[in-house]
Design a protein that fits this description.
Radius of gyration: 27 Å
Number of helices: 19
CATH topology of the largest domain: 2-enoyl-CoA Hydratase, Chain A, domain 1
CATH architecture of the largest domain: Alpha-Beta Complex
Shape: elongated
Number of domains: 3
CATH superfamily of the largest domain: 2-enoyl-CoA Hydratase, Chain A, domain 1
CATH class of the largest domain: Alpha Beta
Number of strands: 17
Structural class: alpha/beta
Length: about 525
Amino acid sequence: MPIKPELLEELNARRAEAKLGGGADKIAKRHEKGQLSARERVETLCDHNSFQERGMHVDQAKPAAKRLPGDGVLTGVGNVDGRPIAVFSQDFTVSGGSLSQMHAQKICDIQDQACELGFPIIGINDSGGARIQEGIWGLSGYGQVFYRNVQASGLVPQISIIAGPCAGGAAYSPALTDFLIQTRKNAEMYICGPSVIKAATGQEAPVEQFGTADAHASVSGNIHFVAEDDKDAIAITKKLLSFLPSNNLQDPPHNIPATISESKNLSLNELVPVDSKAGFDVYKVIEAITDKGQWMEVQKDFAKNIVVGFARIEGMVVGIIANQPAVKAGCLDIDSSDKGARFIRFCNAFNIPVVNLVDVPGFMPGLAQERGGIIRHGAKMLFAYAACTVPKVTVIMRKAYGGSYLAMCSKDMGADFVYAWPCAEIAVMGAEGAIPVVYKKEIDAVKAEKGDDAAKAKKAELIEKYRSKFASPWQAAETNMITDVIEPSETKNHIALALRFSITKRSTRPPKKHGLIPL
C-alpha cells in the first residue's frame, strides 16, 4: 500500500518547522546583524547536498506548550572538499541556543560518531549557556560534552568557531579543542562577564579588554584565528582542514610531485645582516621555502617572537616553528614557549612533520619572566620536541645559544636532520656574555697592568677569537652535531629531500599512559 498522503504532509511540515528554527523573523534579525543562521552556517561549510542531518525532530526533554525545533542545535555529517566531517551548530534563534539535556545529547552523539568513524569535529558555538529551567541537566550536559572533547583529543582534529556568545562553562568546550576561530563582530567569550567581575571585585572591566576576538588573539592567546564574519570563519575552517588528516591513523593530505625543484632562492643569501645584533624578518624565509599560497599561520597576533603554522614544502604538509628575530630578538619567553609547545604536540598527534627555523639568542631575561615561571614554561618546549616522533628537520639560520639551542630541536632533542647556514652561531652563550666570565682574570690582569684601554682591546681580541671558534657552525659540524652546513639559497631543496627521506619514519616508545608535561 502507498504511504498515506497525510503522513507525507506531516513529515514535510515537521521538516519545514525544523529548518526554520526559531522562525523567519528571528533569522531576518540575524541577517541584519551580518550573521548567518545555524543551518546556513552548516550549508556554507559543507559541500553542496552533502550534509546529512541527525536529530532534526528532537525537542526538549520535558514537553512544553512551545516546541523547540532541534532543541537549539543542528548536528550531522557532511563533506568539506570531498572529505567527511562531523559538525554541530548551535541555533541562537531557538531558546538562545541554550544547552539542555537533549541539546547536549545531540552534540555527544555526533562526537561519539566522529570518533568511531574518524571524522574531524567542527563545533559552531552560539549559545546563551546552560538552560536555567533544566537545572542540573544543563551542568550534566556540559560535563558529558567536555568528557568527549577529551576523548576525541589527539584522535580526530577538533575545530571550534565562536560565532556568538560563549560564556561561563560554555567556554570550556572550545578551550578543550585544537583550534578556535572567533568572529570579530557579534561574538564574545569569557568565564565571567563585566557585570560579574564588577560585582565580585568592584573592578570596571569592559568586555573589549578580555572577551572579544582581538583581545583573545593578542593578549590571552585563547584563540588561534580572528574572522571578520561567519563566512570568513568558515573559509578559515576549510583552509585549516586542507592541511589536516581526518584522524590520527592517517597521514596529512600531502600532494607530492614526482620530482623536486632544484632551483635556488638567492635572496636568502643576502637576508641575514652582517651585524649579528640586527634583526631580520623570518617571514621572508618562510615565503622562500614554502610552496606558493601554501602557508597558513596560526596564532599570528600572539607571542609574535615565535611564528607557527602549516605549510606545504614541495607538496608535503609540514608544521613550521620559527623564531622571529624582528620581535624581542627571537627570544623564547613564557607565551612563545606555550604557543610553540602546543603546536608541536598537535603536529605530533596528527602525523605532521615539523620544520624548525632557528635564530634564538636565549630565553627572555627579566624578573617578570622568572617569577612567571619561565623555567616551567620553557621546559614545555623541551618536552614537546623530545616526545615528538614525527619527522623533525631543523635549520639553524643564525643564533642558537645555550638552552634555547636545545629548546628549538637540536639533534640531541631528536631532530632527524639539522642544517646550519654558514653564518650560524652555535654556542653556550654569545661572545659578549661569555668572554667576561671565561677570561675575567686575564682581562682584569691586563687592566691592572696597562689600564682600561688595553683591557678593552684585550676583551675585543678575545671576543673575536671566541666567535671564530665557537660562534660558528664548524665546531658543531666537526663533532657531528649537525647534518650539514648549507648555502641559504639551497634551504628548500635540503628540507624537501629530508622530508621525503623521513616520511616512512617509525618511532616506538616505552608503553605508558602518557608523559607528564610540565604544565
